[in-house]
């Protein structure tokens, strides 16, 4: 009788599905037997319901998010790419101060990625987090545009390197800075969350979609550079010729279009529910381990884990036990008192909780090794621009903006992404047997080496520039196109380092902190900017003593910026040696795939029909 009732229930639900094509999250017992895994149950549409036939997500949604990334990046770089020149020409700051302020601001941008990742993983979910931070981005760009239009760029057309601007007021400066820091908050919180939201559109339990998910991060960085290409060529030209306000308004318009396109696809996205605040979960592991530090170690099969397929972290897969950091395993040892049901989350943790904490600890040294590379990357937005500004920028009758040279970096990224994806991966895959070609850790190591070569190229360019200084002028006769090698090398290194980072941290981060994993890439850039600012200050304090102008003075012709570049190259070499040891030490965490009820391709295609087959 119960079987007949179950059959009738399944048939009724199939009829409803054919009309509405969805079922509510609260599913019947028969439906739960259809082998939907717990993570798939959290993949909802915007109405908070779960489709039987998975028409949500996939490349159609991913392409919309890639377009959003391109437009948002266009908007962001419309402000950031020429910011160092805006600070010197319009706000009247000296070179060192402007470079430091840009480094601090850029550091804040990427530090805000941690805020966005935390809110996304814990409370808001990825869709809402992306939407809110894009609104903040639009607001910041409007404030920047209004402040430059009404208060700062006076007279109109000033700040072009010829016509000086009127002295700015404290109120105008304050409004401008509030605007650019809102831009930092908006873009910083949006980008890593968008990367994770895009990867959510693919089901990693489906082999075809799993490969698409790996490719998505390549295309994500590709879209980022396509968006910045417009900013670094067209917008930078208008800004460099004194039309700053026009450039800022175009950036604001692009951000509005990005937000509108994002909201337009709301009904097509695949949504993952937030997993709750990870901070207490991780803290509970350390507190429980300290409380039980005097207990003897036990075998892994005697450690505590909840029964069933789901972990204690709602929607997260269980993680298999690993032997590293054995002292944390004590948090999962059950005492005699806890065996009889008297348990506290601050005294007893599951294996999955312990392994989540271990994953964070394991990723930390790898992340630290990426910071020096980010110092290399930072120079492209500050010292590279200042170096180019005092070189021969003429191209026939056309005067090339110094910041537009970053277009060679972008073109290098676009070209190297294609070469890597279409040539290097298949070739390396055949030689190594790894379908990814080379591992993410190997890619990141290659990025560090190429970044070091970029700093050497920049130092050599600076030596040649100083040899060709025009007497009585601040510029040099050396063509700005001599900067091309350093920009191209930085671009090539980005493909290996930042795409590798996105893949590595997103794949290695447990289910409950995926956005946090993506944000680590941007957090590395953030810390790199602050380290770069600290290095500039330290170098100037040490080298600018007495009558000496220092390595990076107001007049770069009196300094030795080449030595600063070589210093960063030396730091990169040391960093690479440390990275090799950390990469060899690192061991990947293992989600418990056997305990996760997976859905086969056939089940996904058949949808509701499979419920009847199971009955």
TrEMBL record:
<feature type="transmembrane region" description="Helical">
    <location>
        <begin position="441"/>
        <end position="458"/>
    </location>
</feature>
<feature type="transmembrane region" description="Helical">
    <location>
        <begin position="364"/>
        <end position="385"/>
    </location>
</feature>
<dbReference type="InterPro" id="IPR000109">
    <property type="entry name" value="POT_fam"/>
</dbReference>
<keyword id="KW-0472">Membrane</keyword>
<feature type="transmembrane region" description="Helical">
    <location>
        <begin position="63"/>
        <end position="87"/>
    </location>
</feature>
<comment type="similarity">
    <text>Belongs to the major facilitator superfamily. Proton-dependent oligopeptide transporter (POT/PTR) (TC 2.A.17) family.</text>
</comment>
<feature type="compositionally biased region" description="Basic and acidic residues">
    <location>
        <begin position="601"/>
        <end position="615"/>
    </location>
</feature>
<feature type="transmembrane region" description="Helical">
    <location>
        <begin position="520"/>
        <end position="544"/>
    </location>
</feature>
<feature type="region of interest" description="Disordered">
    <location>
        <begin position="595"/>
        <end position="615"/>
    </location>
</feature>
<feature type="transmembrane region" description="Helical">
    <location>
        <begin position="131"/>
        <end position="153"/>
    </location>
</feature>
<keyword id="KW-1133">Transmembrane helix</keyword>
<dbReference type="Pfam" id="PF00854">
    <property type="entry name" value="PTR2"/>
</dbReference>
<protein>
    <submittedName>
        <fullName>Protein NRT1/ PTR FAMILY 7.1-like</fullName>
    </submittedName>
</protein>
<keyword id="KW-0812">Transmembrane</keyword>
<feature type="transmembrane region" description="Helical">
    <location>
        <begin position="244"/>
        <end position="264"/>
    </location>
</feature>
<dbReference type="InterPro" id="IPR036259">
    <property type="entry name" value="MFS_trans_sf"/>
</dbReference>
<comment type="similarity">
    <text>Belongs to the major facilitator superfamily. Phosphate:H(+) symporter (TC 2.A.1.9) family.</text>
</comment>
<feature type="transmembrane region" description="Helical">
    <location>
        <begin position="216"/>
        <end position="238"/>
    </location>
</feature>
<feature type="transmembrane region" description="Helical">
    <location>
        <begin position="564"/>
        <end position="582"/>
    </location>
</feature>
